[in-house]
Write a structure and sequence with these properties.
The protein is an alpha/beta fold and about 550 residues long. The protein contains 18 helices and 20 strands.
């Protein structure tokens, strides 16, 4: 007889694990099925070069919701987040270095522009205010705009009232953030090109858009909503790499009574009479469940795991229209020592934060121009960190790990080109060439490397087209349109089949919010209640 569970969660990424932990805390019999040998999806730590552990895909944390850390008691399960101190933008003969110490940053900006230093004093508090205003939406179940339901729209009432009570200037700023490009929004504030370029990078992360593309100002705000210990726009690295986040959540789920199986790929969601009844594994094993929750993206869930004819054709077409357009790659380097910046020699504290290859807005836009025509950027935007400067356990004594997030690397290449071994090698070597322009001795320190294309991200993690957010964070794919208009409430047209991954509201990043809200909606709909009071989603 097939095994039976109250809930089966497909995918052991961080959202799937969050869902499992909350359901298990509520007394449900839960099983998580992960196709790989390691938990975490894109939030994994693996030893790629002997002695060197990498955060292979996702590499920093900021968006992980504080309520999840608190309610699942993640520090007790090993979670420790180490802060990154600021961002340096290396330039020809100079650099722009912003740190977490506001006073030091303002003094640095005065070297470039007295006007920008003054504007920065106002910009930071304004964006923090915007983040505080929009933060409640991260815990709201999106209403269905096609239905008039007071209950569904009620959670938006406090937000609407707060917006009404905002000063006119803040209302205007919010509308600008929802509609403008990151470059145009920042142009209103600053005149220093490297400053604008580096700040605009938050608006293009994981999107197939350039800093001058409308809508990227919202993505900038999305990343500004991250917080560590209550500080907005703070970023950190988990001790042990991003895989330690997944391990901590998985440990919390196990402690609550969930079961987790790795190397257990699901090949089919079983459906009878219009409702999900369980799953079938690649091995042929069948597992029955009262409900099935998929933390995979919508393309994988609805097109790959459901048999043809299961879905209404109109819904299926909407799923196929959902945009992924993977645009990011990764280069991980194992080093036998620290290289030095040409513009700022030495190995001081400026290397302990992010190192942003974003010298100008034109540089960023030209990188996007290449991608528009199916070419990896000749000179890409690189967001680099050296996590071993804050967590030396990731490398042997004297060694270091260099993590390089790279944009743009389009999933679809021009003409008949494909992401084969030669294309991957060319991509990686070009990134190292770009790094060498700022770190001239980088090549003599490299003892191992890993080049990751968007096709590799898709093949390894299952993220369609290698999109790190399970679908672009473009305005038409947010809130009640994520992932399909009319189906943004974590439910699906298949009864007892739910979505709980980043393809749903509020989107991607190591956030956990989609998994938490989905679990609480399941419990609310079925009359469940957590033994330790996990709280309300709205």
């Amino acid at each position: 007889m097939p095994q039976r569970y109250d809930a089966v969660v497909i995918g052991g990424g961080h959202n799937g694990l969050v869902t499992a932990a909350y359901l298990a805390k509520a007394g449900k019999k839960v099983l998580v099925l992960e196709r790989r040998h390691v938990l975490g999806g894109a939030a994994v730590s693996e030893e790629i070069v002997p002695g060197y552990r990498f955060s292979v895909f996702s590499y920093v944390v900021s968006l992980l919701r504080p309520e999840i850390i608190r309610e699942l008691e993640l520090p007790k399960h090993g979670l420790e987040i180490l802060p990154l101190d600021g961002t340096i933008t290396p330039l020809d003969g100079d650099s722009l270095w912003r740190v977490n110490d506001h006073g030091r940053t303002v003094r640095e900006l005065r070297r470039w522009s007295l006007n920008d230093a003054e504007a920065y004093e106002e910009y930071g508090p304004l964006m923090a205010e915007m983040a505080r205003f929009i933060k409640p939406i991260l815990s709201i179940v999106p209403p269905d705009p096609g239905k008039i339901s007071v209950r569904d729209w009620l959670p938006l009432t406090p937000l609407a009232k707060t917006f009404k009570d905002l000063p006119k200037r803040l209302q205007t700023t919010f509308i600008q953030l929802m509609t403008m490009s990151a470059a145009d929004f920042l142009d209103q504030w600053f005149e220093t090109d490297p400053l604008k370029a580096t700040m605009s990078a938050s608006g293009i992360i994981g999107t197939f858009q350039g800093p001058r593309s409308p809508g990227t100002a919202y993505v900038l705000l999305h990343h500004y909503m991250g917080e560590i210990d209550g500080a907005y726009r703070a970023w950190g690295v988990p001790r042990g790499g991003t895989g330690s986040i997944s391990d901590a959540i998985g440990s919390a789920a196990l402690a609550a009574g969930a079961e987790i199986r790795t190397e257990a790929p699901v090949t089919r969601i079983d459906v009878r009479g219009g409702r999900a009844t369980g799953v079938t594994l690649e091995s042929g094993e069948q597992i029955e469940a009262g409900i099935v929750l998929s933390s995979l993206d919508s393309r994988w869930t609805f097109i790959k795991l459901l048999e043809d004819g299961t879905l209404d054709p109109a819904f299926r077409e909407e799923v196929l229209r959902y945009k992924y357009r993977g645009s990011s790659g990764k280069v991980n380097l194992a080093l036998d020592g620290l290289p030095e910046l040409a513009c700022k020699p030495g190995t001081g504290e400026w290397l302990r934060g992010a190192i942003s290859f974003s010298p100008s807005l034109d540089y960023m836009e030209r990188a996007y121009d290449d991608a528009k025509y199916g070419r990896p950027s000749r000179r890409p935007y690189i967001d680099m960190i050296i996590p071993t400067l804050v967590d030396p356990t990731m490398a042997p004594p004297g060694g270091h790990v260099m993590s390089c997030f790279v944009q743009y690397a389009p999933y679809r290449l021009a003409g008949d080109a494909i992401w084969d071994d030669a294309a991957r090698e060319s991509f990686g070597q070009n990134v190292i060439d770009t790094i060498a322009e700022r770190f001239p001795t980088i090549r003599q320190h490299i003892v191992g490397s890993q080049f990751i294309t968007p096709k590799d991200i898709e093949d390894v993690t299952g993220l369609t087209e290698g999109n790190i957010f399970q679908g672009e964070l473009s305005l038409e794919q947010l809130f009640f349109n994520r992932p399909v208009p009319g189906w943004a409430r974590y439910r699906t047209p298949i009864r007892d089949l739910w979505m709980c991954g980043s393809a749903t509201h509020p989107g991607g990043g190591i956030m956990g919010a989609p998994g938490r809200i989905a679990a609480l909606e399941v419990l609310r709909g079925r009359g469940g209640r957590g033994r330790q009071g996990p709280g309300r989603a709205a």
